[in-house]
Amino acid sequence: MKYQIIIPAHNEGQFLSVNLQSVADQTLTPIKVIVVNDHSTDNTEDIIDQFTAKYPFITKLNTTSSTEHMPGSKVINAFNKGLKQIDPDYDFLVKLDADTVLPPDYFKTISAIFHHNPRIGIAGGFIYEQDKDGNWNLNHPMDKDHVRGAFKAYSRSCFSAIDGLRNAMGWDTVDELLAQYHSFEIHTEKSLAVKHLRPLGKAYNKKARLLQGKAMYTMRYGLLISLIASLKMAIKHKKPKVFCDNMQGYFNAKKEKSNFLVNADEGKFIRQLRWKKIKAKLF
User: Fold this and answer.
1) By C-alpha distance, which of 158, 170, 146 is closest to 73?
2) Distances (CA, A) of 167 to 20, 123, 261, 264
3) Which of 38, 85, 101, 106 could join 10 in a cystine, given CB atoms 3.0 to 4.6 angstroms apart?
4) Which residues contact 252 (CB under 8 A, 6 or more apart)?
5) How many CB atoms lie within 10 A of CB 234?
């Protein structure tokens, strides 16, 4: 199957070389890789240039934006700029983070997954991170049927049905909810171990947690589901302030009448799906 990759990169000089080499070494070569140099001030562009000179399927797109890291909006802004440069003839599209390292057969396996089941709309592997002793351990904190935003592959039909990615915190949840709304399946492949070179949640501060709460409102979760989800996150992180910040973000968004990311019918489906999963875990 033919596929293309978009890699948003802001000051990724520490990781980008090994990331791009793992892409270049794939047993199933992409037809195009667009590395979006998003206002980098380090050696990110130099690294991209080294790879574009060596591999004709890798291209560079320079863009400017805020230097502030904001989960969701900044990376999707860069992704969407890269999206304008892709070839419309592809079977699946990949949004890939610049701080990941893929096994050589990663996309050959993803291709087979899409090929054998046309109802699969989103696919990906599992995150592994290195501990202080140098061991690579599974760190996939979300539900095991959730594909991490760091390496999402979308079938062409699914990406079209969900109308691309939302430019907001929570984009990597709403995409899967909308995919299921359109009768697509989500597939996580345990055999695909992806190395993540930057610790998860490093940039998730109070402002990011407020945005998380806003995302729950704009995804039309409703108050009760948002309370449950926020409590679950606080328990997982062992930080009560996570709950407080999330709910503050939720109520701020409600007070400000923030625009919803999904329409009323999609929101109803999302709530029903959330309740189904909650009940499945309780009983």
Assistant:
1) 170
2) 25, 20, 9, 19
3) 38
4) 210, 213, 214
5) 19
**Rounded distance between C-alpha atoms, residue 208 and residue 245, angstroms:** 9
Q: What angle do CA 252, 256, 262 make, to 5 degrees?
A: 95
Helix or strand holding residue 113 (H, E) = helix 106-116
Give residue 201's region: left, alpha or beta (phi > 0; psi -120 to 50).
left
Render 135-153 in DSSP notation, one character per residue. -EEE---S-TT---TTEEE
* Separation CA 84–CA 227 (nearest Å): 38
Q: What is the model's pTM?
A: 0.90
Maximum Cα interatomic distance, the chain, rounded to a whole number of Å: 56
d(CA 260, CA 263): 7
User: Cβ–Cβ contacts within 10 Å for residue 176, how many?
Assistant: 23
